[in-house]
Amino acid sequence: xxxxxxxxxxxxxxxxxxxxxxxxxxxTNEDKVDYVRRIGNIFPASQIRLLCAALMxxxxxxxxxxxxxxxxxxxxxxxxxxxxQAWNHRHRRTGHVYGARYHAEPVESEAHLIYxxxxxxxxxxxxxxxxxxxxxxxxxxxxxxxxxxxxDVSTDLILELCGGPRNYAVLLRESLALPSTENxxxxxxxxxxxLWAAGSVQFRDKLESIVERRSDRRKHHRxxxxxxxxxxxxxxxxxxxxxxxxxxxPSRSRRITKARAFFCALARREGIATSTIAGEIAxxxxxxxxxxxxxxxxxxxxx
Length: 303
Description:
The protein is built from 13 helices and six strands. By secondary structure, the protein is of the alpha+beta class.
């Protein structure tokens, strides 16, 4: 399992995929029709809810909800793999169609979904392909404005959040004045380890916990035991005989450092965000990671 793939039920994702060496992956309308058809067949069967989409010349943007959790990776594998084979056959080519694996950027609800959809729908405008989002046939903007669209998308959530098609049309135009984002990330997106996410600080901390928990499980084959932060403090103090004040204090004695590393390792095993652990022991995030790793490598561990 790739630890950067979030498999939680109900999560929203901004999905992007780009052509190999930035080559065009949609050269003809036949290519676009094929891709749209595959989405319509694959996503519903995998319980993937499509909220909006835009097929550009050399990349694609999708905003989706993974209803059951864990359905997006196999769905994207089928979509990308099947399309690549068909594309190579149509264009009498061989080799990779996509430059890398698709990116799935977790998106928090409400404002991030609204402006994320505006960003996706305005991509053709920003690229100079059209002067208004609804003029572009190969995005779902028309569906949001009550017009016929090539895409079968779920518009109800975002339209309800922003107050209907008329309000959405205003937001769509106004969002063109927002500063452009880099590397095709949604407005407000920030990096969480190797993953990008658009959402609040609390949302990013939660994602960090999920990513770290899965990464640590793979690395150390450890499973969480359901310990809260307070229970971890009790456990560490009981097993090491060293109190909370000493562990979070400035001492660098070998005995206290080992107890501090034990605390970091247990907390990371339980999926507690590195930033939270760092605050508990008055250390930096890199120091927490280093302490936890040193404990896992120690031949005389306390657990």
